[in-house]
User: Fold these one by one.
Assistant:
Number 1:
Amino acid sequence: MVNPLITRKEDNPVSTPSKNAKRLFQAVYYAQNPPAEEQKDIPRLSVSEIVSKMAFYYEKIRNTVEYKEEHLFRKNAIERILKRQIVIEGAISPGAKGAEIAEHLLTELIRAGYLPNNTIPETKISEFGQIIDKYISLRRYAVEGYSSLQIKERNALTNWIMALAASDMEERLGRSQVDLVVIDYMYQALLDDISLEDANEYETDREIQIFVAIHRSYLKFDREMLSFILLKYFHPNWLKASEEEIADVGKNILSIKKSIEDQIDHPLTPQLNRIVSRYTVFFQILNDVIANNPVKVYESFFKDPVAFSRMIKQAAGKKYHDAKSKLWRAAVRSILYIFITKSFFAFILEIPATRWFGEEINPISLFINVTFPAILLFLIVLFSRMPSEANSLKIVEGIKEIVFEENQRKEPHRLRQPAKRSAFSNSMFGIIYAITFFLSFGAVVWALNAIHFSPVSIIIFLFFLALVSFFSIRIRKNAKELLILPPKENVFSFIADFFYVPIVSAGKWLSENFSKVNVFVFVLDFIIEAPFKVFVAITEEWTRYVKERKDEIV
């Protein structure tokens, strides 16, 4: 009898890795085994470890009250510091040089823990100073070229330019050689695997849209960072732009911004996102497998081909486990964010508002409205579905397609011409959607009335229901991105989506609009941050002075 534990050998045990796959193995290997470099005695930026703790914990608090993705923390911090130093403080003391601003910026990033201490060479100050000068010039040319803009429009344009500057500096701080190789690898693979149907009017946008989709999916770029790579696409010399080129971009900034936004909101985006998100999973797990032991994995192609599939499954399992952990961390962050920025005000407002309308305060409704967001989010995360074994097998198949020449995809993914509905169809669907909206919220209102909720309590409950529903979609995004196999649809899921989507849409609208009036962020940014950073800087200078006096005594 054959031992059931013996793995069946494949019919074609030897596979040939592609040229791009070999490049990725080399990039990972050299990243793990960098050539020995002489320790050059060059000045490096250094800050007080003790004083930095204050700035570090301040950033922790601020990131809690403003819900953003963790991988965007540093870029957002750069943007915030630039706005404060150039737009706010620059209005008070104009004429600040880029190098001066850059030194403050890098120092603050080190204090806050976004950059390592005593590692960044001081030459980075002049590099970043030139970048800042470039965007200050761009802002000046843009304001001069569009002097007729209203104050609100001018502020929006300034914010966009500051976001571009932050994205520029973030790219120079955070792009590894492995990421660059993966992006090029993905791009080459997707160029071959994605085609458009005949006579598709967007054929000329295919290549740039694939490039944008890779950055959106694999590197998790936000809208501002996508704007920056598109700016480089439209103006290839932007990184080393001359003053004439900066002036030309500034004088045409609105038309350039419009072209960039058209590409970010391109009609092909939904179709491309679905395809590229699958390849993102393949490349993330392939990278994890290679990083574990590049030499051993590469040798397995020829010595034990079945081992590669086993390694992929193990890496996928670890990815699922990590996604579950991140899901719970994101849930805790979301609960803290909602409780601090929303529940607190709801609790304060519900009692006086109820008394104002002459209603009796219902302790049960008050308790439910305060605890409901956390409980609902906890239950949603608890019952979130993780990928199955069949999903892992699909990942193995997909990775083999991009690694081995013998397994390359034969038929490309074909992008359809985006459907254009008639005005009548849009009107009909709009009416049906409005009906589901009122039915969904109407059913909740009826249930709350049945347990004697006051009108104020009902409004607060609906507010949190929509907000938490939207946040549940956001925090489950990373786990859902690992699902290669589409979820099975049934009557229950169809009905649930039919009535749940309006609630999620309302939550998205509330999140986007209420985030603009986040009182805690306003207080931190415009009242606390500037004097706090001055206090930190003075404290650090004082500790440096005390150390110098101590050295003199010794």
Number 2:
Amino acid sequence: MEAIKSSSITGLRNSPLEMTPEEFRSLGHRLVDRVAEFLASLPRRPVSPAESPLQIRALLGDSPLPERGTPAETLLDETAKLLMGHSLFNGHPRFWGFITSPPAPVGILGEMLASAINPNVGGWILSPVASEIEAQTIRWIAEMIGYPRDAGGILVTGGNMANMVAFLAARKARVTWDARTRGMAGEGSRRLRVYASAETHTWLHKAVDLFGPGLDSINWISAGSDQRIDTAELRKKISDDRLLGDLPFMVIGTAGTTSTGAVDPLPEIAAIAHENDLWFHVDGAYGGFAAMAPNAPADLRGMGLADSVAVDPHKWLYAPLDAGCALVRDRNALRDAFTQHRPSYYQLLQDAEQAVNYFEYGPENSRSFRALKIWLAIRQVGREGYAKMIGDDICLAETLFELVSAHPELQAFRQGLSIATFRYVPRDLTPGDAKTEEYLNDLNKAVLAALQKSGEAFMTNAVIGGAFVLRACIVNFRTALSDVQALPEMIARLGAEQDSKLRPAALQGSRAAAN
């Protein structure tokens, strides 16, 4: 037999990735100091860089794969400078764009601690205390939104995945054939049907595409002028589909739409779902945690009636990305959706008595320790602290809406939860006719682009009744009243600048008349 080649390792292994405790401590202290200074400097920084993709890409260069390493101290200094100089800062007090919150400082530190221990929270034996911390965190999240604390649950990457986990649980529980084995080739030509408002987030498009029913399975229900689902139309379409021989199985309500923060009439949807034996799911990724706030819409209480709920701790629990949570009333329904063939290499994961193995509750096997940053923040501020912060965000959005409503060059549209929508309208223009509306849409697109490029604040947009509007979403514990008060005049100034550049000849007469 050929001799085994001798190893080049002698004595203690010298790995290029390893650090001595002294090296790690020195680098860690230096980086923490730099992060602390960065957080303190945020109000003085632009919210976002006015840089193109090509400019950002050029910062990294196009060098080949490094052949040799670089000292960690150099790398950390270079990378901190790169990230702190060329990022959009959702931790900035004037970030009111996508529904992403600033990271809680205790969560930042929690992420470091979680990475240091590095448990794989897929199986209990791989993550004993981490698994129990996740289970406790899920119970606390359920209590926060008025959901049964003994529900099944799992932390995932965000709202898309949390909603998809619930979708799969619903499919397993309500489909009348063995979809796991036979796929969607079920009972003859019966078509699965899911019902959702036209304002529902795009996660649903992905879910029906990835998991079998297809886009035609969605029966879209109109939203009224208040952006809430039309429950009379919902009842009728369920009845009509049954007469056609289809299989209605799921109805979705939204606790805080992405565009305007509208909350569907969840208790009424729950009653309709119960009457028709449908799985009732609530997408509360944005607004679910607002149930804790004293000024929350009463309809949020309907989440407690749902078969499943999705919420995002990286939105209104201010956790660092990423963190979503799927809750399912019947924990067995959640396990049934994900428990598959168990090969021999899973055996150790199953032996611990009464252990929660999270690979049986969701699509991932290997899972990061997402719970720690949430668990720490909940313990730091408690329900009372979150209720105040979320309530303050809502109050600030209400104040902003009042300010834009009173401004002569701003037209207010909708305000829901912590979202306010409005647009810039020059004093000499009267909205309504097609040409003016087309110009106002173009003008407000230019205003939004100018605002984002300026770095003064960051907002996004919504489209309401065909109108392109500016959208401020405040899920930000750093936003102060002075920040909100500064926004109307900021928009009016940028609006006037853009109007002077863009006003078409067909609309020039109205400006001249006004002057």
Number 3:
Amino acid sequence: MSDVLVARDLVRTLGARRVLDGVSLTAAPGHRIGLIGENGAGKSTLLRLLAGVDEPDSGTVVRPADLGFLHQEAPFAGDATVADVLDDALREARTDLAELDRLTRALTEAPDDAALLEAYGAQLDQAQQRESWDADRRAEIIFDRLGLGGVPHERALSSLSGGQRGRLALAALLIRRPAALLLDEPTNHLDDTAAVFVEEELRGMTGVVVVASHDRAFLDAVCTDLVDLDPAMDGPIRYGCGYSAYLAEKRAERERWERRHAEEQEELGELRRAVAVTARQVALDGLRRDNEKMGYGHRGGRVQHQISRRVRNAARRLAELEREQVPAPPSPLRFRPRTLVTVAAAVAETTRAPATGAAEGVAAGCRDPRDETLLSLRDVRVPGRLSIDRLDVAPGERLLVTGPNGAGKSTLLAVLAGRLDAEGEVRRRRGLTVGLLAQDTVFERPDRTVRETYERALGPERAESVPLRSLGLISPRDVDLRVGELSVGQRRRLALALLVADPPGVLLLDEPTNHLSPRLSDELEAALATDGPGGIVIASHDRWLRSRWQGRRIHLP
């Protein structure tokens, strides 16, 4: 059991909120467990308890001695160098080989020493598990595949970017290959190639892996089991499958939930009608019997007694079902348009940068084909950031923008939204509303609460008809927090809630699944495909979203 990670009945309270309440988890070698759930469900908290970084309020953890933990913040001093981190990662492998050399020399002098033979065998097993002979070559490969090959080893960590420090911490653990590996959002700061490499490395590990991640492609590629930490009647639910199979199981669960709720509601209706009708029949029979002959009255009394018993039984079942009925399943995230808008042809608004010499408007009697579009760009330039010769966004368009960091994806969305001036021609249909979900969300009044911000932005009537709680983007416990107290992820979810509750004519989304749980990401994608606004442009690195995208794509090199 030394290599098995076991947690029993973990309880952890942070402030006034109980984050984990009696959570148990067993992870044996060969199992790669993904922790999923909404923000605040306790994924990072559970990892810290499993790693021994924090202590639970109650409960126990038994962990392998050889354990590695990837924090969301790299656990290195700023004055350490890349070489220091690399040496530390290779220390165990080098110790393994040195100890094997020592035991080999000892055995040449005492080849029949049973204790030496046993120690040599155990050390050999450990070295083979860690692949210690290959550690230096593996370190070079890992550094290169994670984009660290060109970083000088003498550089101080304080001089590296946050993304480089995160990749360095991950590289150190992959080099070490501990018996148990705990990872918190390991694909942050990784491009597609690096993420696929990390997935291959983790699948090749024979020990325990427990990972908290929002990356659905990663969860599907790596995990043998998923633990859903979202609140449930019987506590966290463990699924023995990857993400694709988990989605199928969740769909089946929801169908069963919806079917049971519908059947109970139908039974409730029948019981209410039965109680009302039979009670009225009892009352009417009672009135008739006052004028009946004695013999018939005895027979009528028996009938009335039977009816009364049926009324009592039905009323008892009705009370029981009303008390224990299954609640309706929560509505998935959906856009809530004010009306069904039919986009009609209209005269386009034209915005030109004055120094570019853009062409004048269309001559009378001629029809510009761009009058059929919502947005169009011609020869648009933002020096050093963006160069677009032509782009049209048509009614009903679903457009995905891809490209490496720095290619200009966010700049393009800002130009389309009218938040950034550009050289060239930007045309928008007259009266068109455009909404942008930016990566950096800033609210003008951080002193207002979430509730006040939502109601003032939408207006009282709209906020009442589309309650914030119905969208599932903001936790009920957070609605009275001031906006300035929210995390980056919470602010983005509030900004998304405003766009979902009152969709614009064109919706521009910059990395929309950042800070969303896998469940909400799935619901958002479904909503965008089925009932989103007139035009949608998305910039995203999300591999799961991109692999399933059905609309048009453009790639910025």
Number 4:
Amino acid sequence: MPSTHTNRQYIIRVLFLLGTCILLAKTAQIQLLDSSYRDKAQTAAINKYVLYPSRGLVYDRNERLLTYNQPIYELMVTYKQVSPDMDTMAMCNILNIDKKDFKERLNKTWGRRYSRSVPFSFMRRLSSEAYGQLQESLHEFPGFYVQKRNIRGYHDSIAAHTLGYISEVNPTQVENTDIYAPGDYIGSTGLESFYENELRGKKGIKYQLKDNLGRIVDDYKDGSLNQKAISGKDLKISIDAELQKYGELLMNNKLGSIVAIEPATGEILTMISAPTYNPNLLSISRERGQLFNTLTNDPLNPFFNRAVSAKYPPGSLFKPIVGLIAMQEKVWEYNRFVPCTGAYWNVNRFLGCHDHPSAYTIGKAIQYSCNSYFCETFKSIIDKEGFHNPNKGLDLFNSYLYEFGLGQDLGIDFQPEKSGNIPTSKYYNKLYKGSSWRSPTIVSLGIGQGEVQLTNLQMANLAAIIANRGHYYTPHLVKDFINSDDTIDEKYTTRKNVSIDSIHFERVIDGMANVTVGGTATWSHISDITLCGKTGTAQNPHGKDHSIFFAFAPRENPQIAIAVYVENAGDGGRFAAPIASLMIEKYIKNEIRDNRKYIEDFILKADLLPKS
């Protein structure tokens, strides 16, 4: 019998022999039968690539596309991975640059913005020829790779202030979040900025194996770690593109703004600031910086959004609000008569008035825009608690103004929005410390002058409140998120009421309906549309007065409320009112009828820009 030791040796030899056979078989498979293992054996690195999502699109209220995404290819580089033996001249020939340009693009001021170990943009918007050549020879240039991105384009070149533009993130934005990396784009202004979280989408990631020559071999772990990019959400906004385009045409060669609102919903139909600019000028390109500087240095300041950021005296547009508050507080009867001799006199105050008959109702005073009438009406509110107690009267008056959304941000889904200015009793106590102030001191507030200031958005919202007989919805620009379960903020669908009885609104509306029939804006009468409006002329110490008008139409079931402010254009009936009436006719009738073409021609030809 063989010994136990001999049996153990035999078993061990058999196991070694079996293992050797298995290894030889596997080696034969790898080297002779399956080339993929040989290729992967040559892999030198695992590269992580960012997949950029398509930015969400923006449509108007009629689902007309306002923005689009244009794919571009950007050459990225990681400084530490660039080989000193690389054929620099070959890359220069592909990119059509010289060696000096190459060195300037590659060598940065290393620090907060640029890092030697983090990829940065070497060249934006590669030409199609350069992109094609790089696809074939990129493995010859270690450290370089092509990144696909999307840049913004804007159809029709309208609504620049509303839509806004995108730009490259700054170092602070990179440091404050883990969402952005150097070279990423972000919404900088307008809706692009306000709805950045919804529009930007979510980046994807792709891991790829590269061989020692820089060539892609395969997805790492067969792509199991890859993540697809998720496109941004599409927005359907309340702007009517056709109305916006027409309004911008009317405001050409003028300074000012137009804001139109759908009273029943608070949706903004158009928001125009003039002068404007072509938003496509600020698409990501080599010329962008120069074009941006040109617009920034333009003395007419086309970047300034006069619709929501300019603070203006409302002028006579304020008179209907004064009348409403006085009637609600029972300090003024609707049919009270006030004689007017062409001016309002009180102590040392003189406020000129139009040449018109004396008004015997608030409605007639609105129709004639009588300064004398509304100075007396305003004083009756301030003096409600006595002539020597104007603080309480002004505080009472302002409490109504706050309900109208004045003296505060309305809360539009857009930034920046200014709050305007409603002077308070504390303000006047501080201003006139050491001496008293009374209703005659501040009487100019009653006709929309003095320290009171509103934005044109607030003026349009006032027109919407009157149209609704005492309520409004916070003005907003986004109607819906397309193909998404997201909904707009409920604050935009919450009704806000003003503490004034509807009967008083009807009385004020009577006067506004007569403004274009036999009042201060007869040139703006539309025969088959009952337009209810009010002109204003705001004094301008720096030049010609400003032309103002707000209105809504039709009187019953109003479809549009609008405010037009044209700087340095004279009285409200000459420019602001005709522009508003043309906008209303265009929106309700979809055209300007032949019998009003002469008004359109007059407005289109008018050049009101400063000549110096």
